[in-house]
Amino acid sequence: MRSSGRVAFTSLLFAAFALFLCALVLLPQRLAFRGGTRYTFFTGNSSSDCRVVTASPESAPLVRLTLKEVCGESTLFETLDIDEFLASVNGEILFTESLSDSENYYCRADLPYSVTLYGQEVNLHICVKDSGVTVASPIIFGGY
Fold it and tell me: Is the pLDDT of residue 140 over 50?
């Protein structure tokens, strides 16, 4: 009887370890962006009732998994080659906006969220500042 108990315990331990390994592989794939230094998730039905949740790169996959009604996400990069990034998400720039402290690109790309701006479906917003580059899908909600 003890032998079957050890086999059951070992099997359970092995299954838990396999599940843990799968989680390590699959959780980061749920993020819209990879390689950022800070992640922000937007939850709610629209930008007017949007709640902002921030996470470190290490905790972002797990935080994302625990959130309900995610309507967008963003991450911050210290530097970013925009052309290379656009190619990686099959993106195209629809229009730009220049502000005193930033250059903003509104794009269409293979990303999960979207909004309509100026009659066009936008699902990628890139904001370039001296302090870094923020990318978001569909757009950066709140201040940037």
Answer: yes
Residue 22 contacts by C-beta under 8 Å, 6 or more apart in sequence? none
Is 28 within 8 Å of 7 (Cβ atoms)?
no
E-state strands within the chain: 38-43, 51-55, 70-77, 92-98, 103-108, 115-117, 120-122, 124-129, 132-137
| Stated pTM of the model | 0.77
Is residue 125 within 8 A of residue 86, CB to CB? The reply is no
Distance of CA 23 to the CA centre of its chain: 17
pLDDT tens digits, 37-62: 999 999 987 656 778 899 999 999 98
What distances in angstroms separate CA 95 from CA 26, 29, 98, 104, 144, one per listed residue?
A: 34, 28, 10, 9, 18
Question: How far apart are the C-alpha atoms of 141 and 125, rounded to whole Å?
Answer: 10
Helix residue ranges, H only, 43-81: 60-66
